[in-house]
Specification:
Chain lengths: 149, 192, 118
């Protein structure tokens, strides 16, 4: 697929980074305000989607491969499970034990393992949905080269 | 009263958009109509004091629209309408709906003693109650240190649910990759 | 008024079931799955609503007892939050299946796909 006009490209080049930054903010403050890992991951994915749609598929194909997305998704899932398993080493050990100090409410470092889990989930959801979006929107070239019906 | 009326009108709007989405002859207008229903649901979430839900709802709506429109624009729809079957199924569905609503009223939709609480009065009650939701609200700040109670439930009290949900997402996305991949498919086509 | 809201939510769910049963077009079946999911999410959030309640987020300087007396039920919201993201990935999987069907048969119509088999 081709990219869009020069006006759209310049606006997206300015806004795309800000959208991804906003996704990171929403992820990191998920325990204080509405948001969290799922929403942050989807916002990051929406920013990447916007850039892919504006700049066209070929450029995105060069920069991002599907196996990068798959690797990141697996990494996020693994990090989530490792955070859960670390609970076994804390006092009163159990799966998903909140082992870190909970801190003072309304501060960024509060919540124990909740911000860490949010980051892991954001990586997993964002990478997974970006990969499937690239495969859905760009990867289906066989429809165009289909042998005549 | 005012909030309830607005919610009622928004649900009516959602039903009309869903009807258009199901019955419109053009697939593109159907997809846009389902998008309208999703944005109305987002507004209802805000009115119901659930900003945690309105946030992902609007994002999911936009991305679903992009994927569906992209899929429809590059392909031609050659399907035809089947009016006779539609009418018969509509009658069956109407009967099912009447049955469901009667059951809903019978199990206590009108008063708080039933299984579904009446609108505006959730099951949890006051904070010294033993209900699990009030305990979550009362103890979340001191147990987990999170100000957002929804996130405290999602990632601390009920993190097992989140793990299961993460598993579902991974499996669905892997299934998508497996359906869409082209490497194994090409080889078989060449051989045949 | 409250009972009417519940009944309309049920009607919305039934519209999704109707699209799943009656429609032969793959895209409309995907839309039906989406409608069904929206309806169930809506019903769950409606059940947890408290009249005039606030969002379940502790404000600065607010005590937990005050929050527990005023906020809406947070448990359905937490469950629906996971359900929304699952819905997106399910839609992506269904769209992938529809794209494969179109590549193989050249149509979205289930009747034609059945006729072409064999």
């Amino acid at each position: 697929m081709r990219g869009m006009s020069i006006i759209v490209r310049i606006i997206v080049a300015i806004l795309g980074g800000l959208v991804i930054l906003y996704g990171l903010y929403v992820t990191l403050t998920g325990h204080l305000a509405p948001g969290g890992g799922f929403v942050g991951g989807v916002i990051i994915m929406a920013g990447i989607t916007m850039m892919v749609l504006a700049f066209g598929g070929e450029r995105a194909r060069e920069l991002m491969k599907e196996h990068h997305c798959q690797m990141l998704e697996g990494f996020g899932a693994l990090a989530f499970v490792i955070i859960a398993l670390l609970g076994f080493f804390a006092a009163g050990s159990c799966f998903f034990k909140n082992f870190l100090p909970t801190g003072k409410v309304h501060e960024l470092t509060s919540g124990g393992m909740i911000p860490l889990s949010n980051v892991a989930i954001a990586i997993k959801v964002g990478a997974g949905l970006t990969g499937i979006f690239l495969a859905l929107v760009l990867g289906c070239r066989s429809a165009m080269f289909r042998k005549g019906k | 009263m005012g909030v309830e009326l607005v919610i009622l009108l928004l649900i009516v709007f959602m039903i009309i958009s869903a009807l258009i989405a199901v019955e419109a002859s053009d697939l593109l207008s159907a997809v846009i109509a389902i998008g309208a229903a999703g944005f109305a649901l987002c507004a209802i979430d805000l009115l119901l004091a659930a900003p945690d839900l309105a946030f992902p709802q609007v994002l999911v709506e936009i991305i679903t629209l992009v994927i569906l429109i992209r899929m429809i624009m590059t392909r031609q729809d050659t399907s035809r309408q089947t009016p006779k079957d539609t009418l018969r199924t509509a009658m069956v569905m109407l009967a099912c709906g009447m049955f469901l609503i009667v059951v809903f009223l019978a199990v206590g939709g009108m008063n708080t003693s039933g299984t579904i609480p009446s609108f505006g009065r959730p099951v949890m009650g006051s904070f010294d109650d033993t209900g699990v939701s009030s305990q979550y609200l009362f103890r979340c700040a001191q147990d987990t240190g999170a100000a957002n109670v929804v996130m405290g439930i999602l990632l601390d009290y009920r993190a097992y649910d989140t793990l299961g949900e993460a598993t579902v997402i991974v499996v669905a996305i892997l299934g998508g990759y497996a359906v869409l991949r082209r490497i194994g498919r090409k080889k078989r086509e060449v051989k045949s | 008024m409250g009972i009417a809201i519940y009944i309309l939510a049920f009607v919305f769910i039934l519209l999704g079931v109707y699209a799943l049963i009656a429609k032969k077009n793959v895209i409309r079946i995907i839309i039906g799955i989406g409608i069904l999911e929206y309806g169930v999410n809506l019903l769950l959030v409606l059940v947890g609503y408290r009249k005039g309640g606030m969002a379940p987020i502790l404000a600065n300087g607010q005590s937990s007892a005050n929050l527990a007396g005023r906020a809406v039920d947070p448990l359905p919201q937490a469950m629906v939050l996971t359900s929304i993201v699952i819905g997106l990935s399910i839609t992506a999987l269904a769209v992938a299946l529809a794209i494969r069907l179109y590549d193989k048969y050249g149509t979205f119509d289930m009747n034609d796909i059945r006729d072409l088999r064999g």
